[in-house]
Amino acid sequence: MTTVQHTTGAVAPSNAWVLSEGAVDATGRRVPDPPSSCATDDYANCLARHGRTGRWAEFYPSSHLWALQWAETGLCLLPAAGLAGLCVWWIRHKSA
Fold first, then answer.
1. Are 31 and 23 contacting, i.e. CB atoms less than 8 angstroms apart?
2. Parallel, antiparallel, or unpaired for β 2-7 and 30-31?
3. Cα–Cα distance, 96 to 84 (Å, whole number)
4. How confident is the model at residue 8 (pLDDT cuts 50, 70, 90)?
């Protein structure tokens, strides 16, 4: 996972899996986003008026995709194999 904080440009790459993001104030503290009443054409000035000087984000870059996929596959296959083994044992135990 990557964390970027206090940026004024794009916070995360467009192909990243963004877990969370938000605004920061001049001291770098994470603060709630400004009200939705900010106009799109004057958004930067509206952020400044509300004390928001940058953005932060926590995300997984696209280069981590396959490592995450294999980890999730393992998390699914291990319990499935355990349950299959339990079923085989149960059936053989009950048959005898």
1. yes
2. unpaired
3. 19
4. low
